[in-house]
Design the sequence.
């Protein structure tokens, strides 16, 4: 299930320590429940990656539970941090700030040191202020931004490492859990800090989007790999990469009917729960309409369905459905249908997977339709279509949800092709639609046919049936054994069968 937002929980590992939630549900999920208390964790990332925002989540989550929390800033002023934090909704009224950033007086009052180096002169008052504040407040959570500023108060790398280790031990001995950031570069890397810390969280901002990855977490397992991240006016959201094997729900693999007897006969009862069905065919053949027919029948049973449309506008889909006797708008009003328009580049694949999880786990959705596979590939940020759609489909199947994948083949005519992308292995069922020609009294008509190419859990008819979409709904005819050239360029009836 999607993790609940509890702030502290006791872990069952060998440490016997508590975990403190960061306050970002997706990140806490990656951390298997949160950060282990009384330890120090490094937050890495370039400018604008969200390091300070993550720290504000960590502190305000603690302060909301009555914990004493301390923000130590060595760069940006406390006033600026408060202003920016409150602007995106953080309540910092119960967070204590220790502002060690340079003031304007440092520039106007030129200071020179004739005997001692600047590092030796300034290290002592900064250290004293930190000790006094920690001793007075006894904070449970500390965020320091950025610890690499202390590098300039050390005479060499060895002294800097000893200072950081001593500083962390000082805080841990006072039962504080600490997050600290680094400002690394090629000239001044932070490899030493990665070795010292108990955990490392990496934030990345690239042309492909924002991401987060955990590369170290002492004393605990965690979800590795790169996961999507978004910064918004609500702070930071993390979307863990979907791992289907971790999700399972018991269900009965019963057949669900379409409500059209002839179509159900073609499929020997309908589509089974927890299966993936590809509905393939050229543009305008009726792929989406066939999928909506199963949703209409599900609504009659009081079950919820959702359509993710990547190409067609939601309002147009609703209007078109009503013209063919599918009351989609009423279904939406009753909560048995949701139509979600996914705009180009609006979501990463991980964000989309999180939306799907909400439908399956929170709203108990029974049918999910992705319309279409090509639109999915073009609209979502990311380049590995097969891996992401595989994860979503397998997850839904494990949860007992019936998945409909709409696949549009490029050409109206030509040699039969199942799909234009390599995902047919995902399908438990493969339903295809084709145009075919029929000549009546020297007049050639273009008609539609529907057939089944594959069905894992039951048998199916091996012939095609004529398909019509009328204002009264879908009409499916009897089997057409006389239809020739089904897999060729132009399916047609022979004269003898006509």
Sequence:
């Amino acid at each position: 299930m999607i993790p609940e937002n509890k702030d502290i929980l006791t872990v069952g590992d060998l440490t016997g320590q508590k975990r403190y939630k960061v306050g970002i549900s997706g990140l806490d999920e990656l951390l298997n429940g949160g950060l282990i208390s009384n330890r120090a964790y490094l937050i890495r990332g370039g400018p604008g990656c969200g390091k300070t925002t993550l720290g504000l989540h960590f502190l305000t989550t603690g302060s909301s539970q009555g914990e004493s929390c301390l923000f130590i800033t060595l760069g940006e002023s406390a006033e600026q941090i408060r202003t920016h934090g409150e602007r995106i909704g953080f309540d910092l009224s119960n967070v204590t700030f220790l502002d060690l950033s340079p003031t304007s007086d440092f520039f106007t009052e030129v200071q020179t040191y004739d005997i001692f180096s600047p590092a030796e002169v300034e290290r002592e008052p900064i250290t004293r202020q930190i000790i006094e504040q920690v001793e007075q407040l006894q904070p449970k959570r500390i965020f320091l931004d950025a610890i690499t500023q202390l590098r300039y108060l050390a005479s060499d790398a060895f002294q800097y490492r000893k200072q950081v280790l001593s500083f962390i031990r000082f805080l841990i001995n006072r039962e504080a859990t600490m997050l600290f950031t680094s400002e690394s570069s090629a000239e001044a890397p932070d490899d030493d800090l990665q070795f010292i810390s108990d955990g490392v969280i990496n934030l990345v901002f690239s042309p492909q989007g924002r991401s987060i990855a955990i590369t170290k977490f002492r004393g605990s397992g965690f979800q590795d790999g790169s996961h999507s991240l978004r910064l918004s006016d609500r702070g930071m959201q993390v979307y863990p990469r979907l791992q289907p094997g971790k999700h399972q729900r018991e269900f009965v693999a019963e057949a669900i009917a379409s409500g059209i007897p002839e179509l159900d006969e073609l499929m020997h009862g309908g589509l089974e729960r927890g299966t993936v069905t590809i509905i393939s065919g050229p543009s305008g053949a009726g792929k989406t309409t066939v999928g909506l027919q199963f949703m209409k029948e599900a609504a009659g049973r009081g079950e919820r369905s959702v359509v993710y449309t990547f190409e067609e506008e939601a309002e147009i889909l609703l209007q078109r459905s009503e013209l063919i006797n599918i009351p989609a708008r009423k279904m939406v009003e009753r909560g048995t249908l949701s139509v979600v328009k996914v705009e180009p580049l609006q979501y990463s694949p991980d964000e989309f997977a999180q939306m799907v999880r909400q439908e399956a786990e929170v709203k108990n959705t029974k049918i999910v339709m992705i319309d279409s596979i090509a639109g999915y590939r073009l609209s979502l940020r990311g380049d590995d279509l097969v891996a992401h759609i595989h994860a979503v489909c397998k997850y839904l199947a494990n949860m007992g949800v019936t998945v409909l994948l709409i696949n549009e083949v490029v050409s109206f005519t030509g040699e039969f092709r199942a799909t234009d992308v390599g995902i047919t292995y995902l399908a438990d069922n493969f339903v295809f639609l084709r145009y075919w020609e029929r000549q009546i009294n020297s007049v050639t008509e273009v008609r539609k046919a529907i057939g089944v190419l594959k069905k894992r859990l039951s048998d199916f008819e091996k012939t095609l049936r004529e398909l019509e979409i009328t204002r009264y709904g879908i009409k499916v005819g009897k089997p057409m054994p006389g239809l020739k050239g089904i897999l060729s360029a132009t399916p047609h009836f022979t004269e003898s069968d006509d």
About this structure: Confidence is low (pLDDT under 50) at residues 1-15, 112-121. The radius of gyration is 30 Å. The chain has 14 helices and 25 strands.
